[in-house]
Amino acid sequence: MATQLTTVPFEGTNLTVIDHNDQRWLTAEQIGLALGYAEQNARDGIVRLFNRHKDEFTEDDTCTVKLTAQGQARDYRIFSATGCHLLSFFSNTPRAKQFRAWAKAVLAGQTAAPTSLEGVEQRLGKVEHNLGIMAENMAALVMVSRQQAEKLDVTGRYIGLLEINQKGKVRVTRKKEAEALAMRAQGMSMRDISAVLRISPTAVSQIINGKYPWANSEDEKGPLPTPTIEELIDNMVEHERERLPRLLDALKRTTRSQIKKARVRVSSGGTVEGE
């Protein structure tokens, strides 16, 4: 396989990475520069270090390849990520720890190797862009969650209002069936559906399970289009808004009647209960 060269920055030094046999390698000179050796001693210093510990290296750690430099082809000893890891331990220079982490990430291929500072900035720009999109999505999710919570709160309050102000049951119609199915699809319990629509829990269960005993006239009509839960809530709130003035008027008449009766009892020498 052809040997390819790529320039990769490390701690302000541009290192030439060699792509050979589907792996990334560095020459002895490049490793010496990365570890902080003087330029004139970088190659020889690493070669001496390798020769002192040669028995600890395998062919997976190092090998020789023919490279062309200054128009001449010659054999170069190169080191893989594991070979660089060993050399950094043996050298124990101030930059050895950083070099080990860099070799693990770039040479071992755990992260893509940036080719320049511009490449790093482009990657950071993409990360910032993706974080911005995530933030927008989270904000939208929070808004939807709040809206759903408000709808559930309105539904719960409406159910409570029905339990207080409404008594008795109403006739089950195809419209009630459609409303019951819509509420069930939105996750409401059969008990809540029964309270909202003022039909018995048994009727709700039969409707949900498709077993309600419809009369022939109702069967011929067929089921009505299923409304959304928002439409149901809007209709129910409007219905209660229309009923509220009548309820308040009835309450006022009852209160005035009770006040009159209390005044009659007081003028007759009686006492008003609770005094």
List the helices and strands and how they pair.
Blueprint: E1 4-10, E2 13-20, E3 23-27, H1 28-34, H2 42-52, E4 62-69, E5 72-79, H3 81-91, H4 96-107, H5 117-165, H6 174-185, H7 190-197, H8 201-208, H9 216-221, H10 229-267
Antiparallel strand pairs: 1-2, 2-3, 3-5, 4-5
Short description:
Helices cover about 60% and strands about 15% of the residues. The protein has a five-stranded antiparallel sheet with strand order 1-2-3-5-4.
Structure explained in plain terms:
The protein has 10 helices and 5 strands. It has helices at 28-34, 42-52, 81-91, 96-107, 117-165, 174-185, 190-197, 201-208, 216-221, 229-267, and strands spanning 4-10, 13-20, 23-27, 62-69, 72-79. β1 and β2 (13-20) form a beta hairpin. A 5-stranded antiparallel β-sheet has the order 1-2-3-5-4. The chain is 59% helix and 13% strand. The chain has 275 residues and is of the alpha+beta class. α7 packs across α8 (201-208).
